[in-house]
Amino acid sequence: MGGWGDACRPQYEMVRRWLEAMPPDVVRLKRAEAEHLFRRIGITFAVYTEGGDPERLIPFDIIPRVLDASEWALLQRGLEQRVKALNAFLHDVYHDREIVRAGHVPEALVYGNPSFLPVMKGLEVPRRVYTHIAGIDMVRTGADEFYVLEDNCRTPSGVSYMIENREVMMRLFPELFARNLIEPVSHYPEQLLETLRTVAPRNCDHEPTVALLTPGSYNSAYYEHSFLADEMGVELVEGPDLFVEGDIVYMRTTSGPKRVDVIYRRIDDDYLDPRVFKPESVLGVPGLVDAYAKGNVTVANAVGAGIADDKAVYMYVPEMVRFYLGEEPILKNVPTWNCAKPDELSHVLDNLDQLVVKMVHGSGGYGMLVGPTASKAEREAFAAQLKARPHDYIAQPTLALSTCPTFVDSGVAPRHVDLRPFVLVGEEVNIVPGGLTRVALREGSLVVNSSQGGGTKDTWVLSPRSLSAGEGA
């Protein structure tokens, strides 16, 4: 089974030998079995912009992405450092504004940003943690360096796919896990629940009750919401299931109202409380922000945390690490041009055929231009958008991204991947070894988002105790 090339990383060598020894009909059978398992479990991702049935099965590749113990140790240190700095930044901009007053981050970028919510000014949150669950998107270059693409500090999704990918791989290929010591990921829901309990509100003098707030079954990530609530053993609730009385949040149950102390919310700020944000919202809970401000409930991630994952603010995260922690950043940013600056906009316009241009508030792979693969007409149309609204865009070079062996119709071929590790922050910082690997299944594509045709892989972190670590797995 070809397609691996001559530069197979050592940790993949055993996977290559195992797959090459597997008859092609068995490979086809295993791929079909994986699809059957995902359909039976009901793991789908909703796409509402293309017509037809919106529920899609995310393509799953049976070749895992493998990181050795030393690679993961570096990433783990860098991720913990980065998320600590992001939380320090969030507390600062809603309180003392030291980094702005020191001139390290432009005032207009923070306080003129729609993600900055004045209602949070001066509000104390438990342990000064604003982003309790962070998803940090990373890529590796052909030069073997890791870069952070963006920080997801609001409601990062994808962790259920990380866990289910591992479950499916263990069912399909138990012999691989018997041969190698691969760090587990199944304990993530347990760690998540413990993290949420450690950030109980200051007025909670009892065992905190946690609930997961979902916008409902029509949300694209509803499967994940129900999965995590079930795995944690907490209630999955929608806005009408909760009410506020005396600045305390209660949940409606068959045995009467029950106080809720920590809400893991999976809905956007604008819909959380119709008394404070969008008055027409039926997804949120009237009075929730007052209860939050009085110290009677914790909202995770915190209201207003979105300012930290703004793509323009992203450019200043290395400076945040230096300013708040007094350390040099372990993880690098991708070089970024801010189109709001005239000289940088001019550079971007002159080099559109070489750059990736993204909307500052965009997500899901939408609203972006991949210059090298765009047509001349597409670049010209995008240039007009840039000139009209330069503040809405940033640009980055198209890095020489590393690839991972992937099954495609023609066999095994290299495809670009990224990695989203999940960082939990409460009393301590915990990171489950691995994360969600997303793969761009279209040849030459750099867009890995599920909504744009990307797939996923299981992500293996080899234990330092693994006898196979030297020869790979």
Automatic annotation (TrEMBL):
Write the protein's name: Circularly permuted type 2 ATP-grasp protein
Gene3D superfamilies linked: 3.30.1490.270, 3.40.50.11290
Q: Can you name the source organism?
A: Futiania mangrovi
Q: Which Pfam families match?
A: CP_ATPgrasp_2 (PF14403)
UniProt region (Disordered), positions on chain: 450-473
InterPro entries associated with the record? ATP-dep_Glu-Cys_Ligase-2 (IPR051680), CP_ATPgrasp_2 (IPR025841), UCP005522 (IPR016450)
Residues annotated as domain Circularly permuted ATP-grasp type = 64-440
